[in-house]
Amino acid sequence: MAPSGSRSVDCWRVLYWIPVLFICVIVAWSYYAYVVQLCIETIENMGEKIVYLLAYHVLFIMFVWSYWQTIFTKPMNPLKEFHLSHSDKELLEREDRRESQQDILRRIAKDLPIYTRTMSGAVRYCELCLLLKPDRCHHCSACEKCILKMDHHCPWVNNCVGFSNYKFFMLFLAYSLLYCLFVSATDLQYFIQFWTVDGKTHERLIKYLNGLPDTQAKFHIMFLFFAASTFSVSLAFLFAYHCWLVCKNRSTLEAFRAPAFQHGPDKNGFSLGMNKNFRQVFGDEKKYWLLPIFSSLGDGCSFPTCLANPDPEQPSSPTGHNPSIKSAGESHQFPPKPLRESQSRLINNTQSEGIEDRDKQGTSNPALTVEKET
CA torsion sign, 54 to 60 to 62 to 68? Predict the structure, then answer.
């Protein structure tokens, strides 16, 4: 017999799907109301009917496709390089002094491309996952794991929106907004006609109660317009907000609390300019921009930034450069698996732009403290 604790957890996981089920029911009803009741039963002009149906199904397919990808794309977790090894875990458990534990974590952190810190200046460490958090990575209490470039946990998709599916989430917002606007615009004239044929609203309601043959179609047309218009307003604000985040290269979490670097918090720490910020999410290949196919740049564990100083714990070269930061003509040390040419170009170009400034300023060497963070 399964323990009661596991049954309660499974019950909660089932409840998490209720918002997704609600959206699916609304979308299925809107399909029936628009295709059957409006286009087939109400619209008489054959040319108008064909144009509406073709345009509607294009938007419907793209909307459902992007929604599906957002829901069922698994969030990416940190690579094994960021996890503590078995020996490091034993060392950490045996040490009682905080300073000794910090030395162990500092030794691990110096070989990783980590530039963000906690607000107190310590390396970000997750006690639950037993790993050093990569830049822009956060622990999700709902998913019970660390998520790369976590934006937020969305109940409407029952999934974490992060590096692996943020592009899909953006396309989902875009196509759902276009879907609602298209339905509202094409349904508007028939919605108005429903209320203005005889100019008497109460007679329309009486006919509804009497169950006249055309009542069902008019009921769907009326509420289809209301639903589409309402969702259009909320989606427009949400989509505009996330477009702003993409242009600034911020996540929702970073918009509320700026990422902290060695020199302190900086809300524009990962911004590379609007063009590069956009390409970091949607990729360099334009043919994939409007399709819910993964094309984001990078691996989710390391991100180019023009503000992060070289890690003082890493050995410096004779010229004062950090050996882990290379020029545009050299390969990127991390991640271990090779990047696509477009990904490498974005990272290398950004790094080479900041090397000249670092040559002039020199390498700072503040004391690095490490503390645990959940």
Answer: negative
Model pTM score: 0.78
Q: Are 106 and 313 in contact (CB under 8 A)?
A: yes
CA 363 to CA 312: how far, in whole Å? 8
Give pLDDT, residue 319.
34
H-state helical runs in 73-97: 86-94
Q: Which two tokens stand for residue 99?
A: 């300073």
Residues of the chain by 3-state class (helix, strand, coil), percent to 5: 55, 5, 40
| 38 against 331, higher pLDDT | 38
Which 3 state secondary structure label does DSSP give 249? coil
How far apart CA 366 and CA 374 sit, in angstroms, is 24
CA distance 297 to 282: 8
Answer for the pair 339, 298: CB distance below 8 angstroms, yes or no.
yes
Q: Which residue has the tokens 């006249």?
A: 212
Read off the tokens for 340. Answer: 């696509």
Catalytic residue numbers read: 154
Residue 5, C-beta contacts closer than 8 angstroms, at least 6 positions apart: none
- Per residue in 145-164, is it b (16+ CB within 10 Å) or e — as a string? bbbbbbbbbbeebbbbbbbb
Least confident range from 70-79, 246-255, 297-306: namely 297-306
Tokens coding 160: 């974490």
Q: Is the pLDDT of residue 358 over 90?
A: no
**Are 138 and 150 a contacting pair, CB within 8 Å?**
yes
Determine how many CB atoms are found less than 10 A away from the CB of residue 179: 24
Q: Is 33 exposed, middle or buried (0-12, 13-18, 19+ CB in 10 A)?
A: buried
Packing angle between helix 274-282 and helix 215-248, nearest 10 degrees? 120
Please give the backbone phi and psi of residue 141, each rounded to the nearest 5 degrees, phi first. -70, -30
How confident is the model at residue 46, as a pLDDT? Answer: 94
Query: Where is pLDDT greater, at 274 or 109?
Result: 274
* Tens digits of residue pLDDT in 308-346: 444 444 433 333 333 333 333 333 334 333 344 444 445
DSSP 3-state of 204: helix
Residue 287 CB neighbours (<10 A): 9
* CA–CA distance, 92 with 85 (Å, rounded to integer): 10
Q: Which of 61-65, 106-110, 181-185 has the lowest mean pLDDT?
A: 106-110
